[in-house]
């Protein structure tokens, strides 16, 4: 059991094992039960903080506050006022960016240099939603009824939003939920993962500093069963925005039937990457590697199924193995670290179980396939970036989402075969294609059953570009104008204007 403490001080939180409260109705409070949970640094095992362990009664307080705020002062915020508020929040994110990213690194392990490189994308999201706040227009519609009728639509906020986010990108995931909620005039209860709750609590302090009215943004800490499930089922929540596993998403769908609430789901993936013989291997190798290993593979879009045209398969896999072995794995606070730890001992055990499964089914480890424990790494939860060859489509590690730095390579002979195999999965979140042939790129992108297809790149995201999955990877979009539509109702108005 972890007993050591780690002290890190920021302008927003001091993380030295002390208790941090959650944010409900503009107040910093504990859970009604007084129970708490511990969060640790996955690189060292040291305790960072305890946070409230909320349950249904705490969730109810947050929902009540959000409902009251929705029809209170917040209802009077005109679009331009919401825009100004979001721009203020974006400026405060810039001011506190180093603190926020340090918190993510300490709490879930993302290398600090990579976390800080996301600044433009995250603050850009806030400014993008600010821009949309004043563009949420209905339309006048010509109708064909006899007489004289004027018909038009209005865009209105859906209401109280429950947002449940995972631990693998707490800052970005929080903004992806809070940004559109504030732009559209909704109120929100954010429930972060128990594995990484600290930067969402820092974000609550930024909301307070920005002058967001009480109850508009609430952050409730707790686990999925005790806090997430009551939020999903709450009769006074109008929408759930969820990012996480497919199994949990299915539970949320069942819970949403209580009041037929709106639901958007960004769920799991098992993303394929197809590398054609005409690809530029100097570009493809590192991009494929980072598609699988970035954030220690703990990302829903991780490219973990690799299909390589047979004529280049052996060369490509060997080069990919060399790339994996050269990646520097370590504590995320080290500026030289490229791959940090996985988030917890439990997650490490899960990843290793998939590795053992692959080996037992005949896959060959080209690189990695082990826990790293040398020196200071022994105290944390470090997994070597892993490349498997001799994999096949029906292996457990090829079928199921691992959420760790593992990629399985398989040869193909015809592009149509590769596309068919790539599509033979219940998931459809993302895919990658590497080819220098423009026509082939377009045809393959059209044929792949995925919400996002990257050609000769991977992980490219922009606030203005929609992102979301097909099939069991969920529905609804994050990013783009499609995203704010998820937080709006369309009301139709008819007026008889005949004299």
List the helices and strands and how they pair.
Elements: E1 8-9, E2 14-15, E3 22-24, E4 27-29, E5 36-40, E6 47-52, H1 56-70, H2 79-108, H3 112-116, H4 119-132, E7 140-141, E8 149-157, E9 160-164, H5 170-184, E10 187-191, H6 198-210, E11 217-219, H7 224-233, E12 239-243, H8 246-256, E13 262-266, E14 271-275, H9 281-293, E15 303-309, H10 310-326, H11 345-360, E16 364-367, E17 371-372, E18 382-383, E19 386-389, H12 396-399, E20 406-412, H13 415-423, E21 427-428, E22 430-434, H14 438-447, E23 452-455, E24 470-471, E25 474-475, H15 480-485, E26 488-496
Parallel strand pairs: 9-10, 9-12, 10-11, 12-13, 14-15, 14-22, 15-20, 19-20, 22-23
Antiparallel strand pairs: 1-2, 3-4, 5-6, 7-8, 8-26, 13-25, 16-19, 17-18, 21-24
Helix pairs in contact: 1-7, 2-4, 2-5, 2-6, 4-5, 9-10
Primary descriptors:
disordered N terminus, Aldehyde Dehydrogenase, Chain A, domain 2, 499 residues, 6-stranded mixed β-sheet, 38% helix
